[in-house]
Write a structure and sequence with these properties.
It is a single chain. Helices cover 37% and strands 22% of the residues. By secondary structure, the protein is an alpha+beta fold. It folds into 2 domains: 17-172 and 228-314, BirA Bifunctional Protein, domain 2; 328-418, Rossmann fold (3-Layer(aba) Sandwich), CATH 3.40.50.800. The strands form 3 sheets. Strands 1-5-6-11-10-9-7-8 form an 8-stranded mixed sheet. Helix 1 runs antiparallel to helix 5 (138-154) and helix 5 (138-154) runs parallel beside helix 9. The longest helix is centred in the N-terminal third of the chain and has 18 residues, at 17-34. The structure holds adenosine-5'-triphosphate (ATP) and magnesium ion. Adenosine-5'-triphosphate binds next to strand 6, strand 10, strand 11 and helix 11.
Length: 419
């Protein structure tokens, strides 16, 4: 019969790859909690309106990448393409701002974007999303970046590039926007169709275009750094000074605008050469008005999202030979032995001992082969004759030695081996 495969762009994460994911997630829980973050779990499905308003109508995500459907003809719903909008919705809905002047939250889970699937780009992918809501003090920006660099290093990632930029604020960004529009006036022909449209809807987004001629044109474009107001300049400088306090290397990239509309002031990305074309491990920035725009109080925020697939691909495969196998394999020969193996194996597991057995009744030779493959430290051999005589054979797989042990206190004997 024809097999049913997963949907294009939706991928299974199999063991041992899942070990890496748990390792990364475990580190995230540890590092983030040391910095005062708490975990939030938000739904995968939201009202479409949340993303339209939150991410912005003229972004790639909202224009063409969302999985949106009408729920039984009643309401337009969307599989979340990112987590920030949902976190802010929850923050407002549950009035978390009333409890603390600063709220630090993180969420881990799948996001959905209908992009062209390729290496490092999927339609369901996973992010670790981190947000700080509160004052717009640049020390908070610095603290977040200190934490993220520490996190990446703690899972063993090095040779990463941190790029930062300031996108200015409501006061100074309009001037920059105008400068971009007048710079591009008369050069429309050189731009791709998307960017020609962006010229009237969202000209800053043209910096983000991956089409070569557009990138070429934009190398000459005005830079935000020349337009920032005094407040934004000071904010950006304080951030940089504080990164230097922690010897964090960074580059200012005035062309980095990021793909979402809500960013103001600080934006940042971490990239690496080891990922090929999809080289961004994480991206984020400050959003001074998102909470207000989603109907909440006038509270600022800053956050980032790490791509888990890309991050996991940077961590070396765990070596199968060095990963410890079960403590014990129980080879059982005959029905009675099999029952005995079942009891012993599961009693040991209940005590936290990693034990394995085989219910197939295969030959001793093939069971020993399996024990080898599992890389087990010890094997117990249970045969019909041994059962009658209330004994078993215990084989030390590393030393290739074996001894007879009594069946009555076999559990005790094995537990001693574990100590
Ligand atoms: P890119 O420029 O690679 O499209 P982005 O700017 O769309 O990234 P964000 O929306 O900021 O990315 O998401 C943060 C991170 O999530 C990215 O740096 C990347 O690691 C990961 N990511 C984004 N889209 C995908 C995807 N389709 N598949 C896998 N990972 C993704
Ligand atoms: Mg993208």
């Amino acid at each position: 019969m024809e097999i049913i495969t997963a949907v294009r762009g939706f991928k299974d994460i199999l063991p041992p790859e899942t070990d890496k994911w748990r390792y990364i997630e475990g580190k995230a829980h540890d590092v983030f909690s040391a910095f005062g973050f708490r975990e939030i779990r938000i739904p995968i499905l939201e009202k479409t309106e949340l993303f339209r308003r939150g991410i912005g109508e003229s972004t790639d995500i909202v224009e063409k990448e969302m999985y949106t459907f009408t729920d039984r003809g009643e309401e337009s719903l969307t599989l979340r393409p990112e987590a920030t909008a949902s976190v802010i919705r929850a923050y407002i809905e549950h009035a978390l701002h009333a409890a603390e002047p600063v709220t630090k939250l993180y969420a881990i889970g799948p996001m959905f974007r209908r992009e062209r699937p390729q290496k490092g780009r999927y339609r369901q992918f996973n992010q670790i999303d981190v947000e700080i809501l509160g004052p717009d003090d640049p020390h908070i920006d610095a603290e977040l970046l200190v934490m993220v660099i520490h996190f990446l290093r703690s899972v063993g990632l090095s040779s990463l590039n941190l790029e930062i930029n300031s996108l200015g604020c409501e006061k100074c960004r309009p001037g920059f926007r105008e400068a971009i529009v007048s710079f591009l006036r008369g050069r429309e022909e050189e731009l791709c169709g998307d960017c020609r449209r962006r010229l009237s809807t969202n000209p800053l987004r043209i910096f983000d275009c991956k089409v070569e001629p557009c990138r070429e044109v934009m190398t000459q474009a005005p830079r935000m750094t020349d337009f920032v107001c005094e407040d934004c300049r000071r904010h950006f400088e304080t951030l940089q000074q504080n990164l230097e306090q922690f010897q964090i290397a960074y580059q200012v990239n005035p062309k980095m605008v990021r793909g979402l509309d809500y960013y103001t002031r600080t934006t940042f990305e971490v990239t690496t050469e080891h990922l090929g074309a999809q080289n961004a491990v994480l991206g984020g920035g400050r959003y001074d008005h998102l909470v207000r725009d989603l109907g909440g109080p006038d509270i600022s925020g800053i956050g980032f999202a790490i791509g888990l697939e890309r991050m996991a691909s940077l961590i070396p495969e765990p070596d199968a030979k060095t990963s410890p196998g079960p403590l014990l394999f129980i080879a059982a020969l005959g029905d009675k032995a099999l029952q005995e193996a079942f009891l012993l194996c599961n009693r040991l597991r209940l005590k936290g001992i990693l034990a394995e057995t085989d219910y197939t009744g295969r030959s001793l030779k093939s069971q020993m082969k399996r024990a080898d493959k599992l890389n087990t430290a010890f094997t117990v051999i249970l045969g019909e004759k041994e059962l009658v005589e209330k004994r078993a054979l215990l084989r030390n797989m590393r030393q290739s030695t074996q001894e007879e042990i009594g069946l009555d206190d076999i559990e005790e004997t094995i537990l001693k081996l574990a100590r």
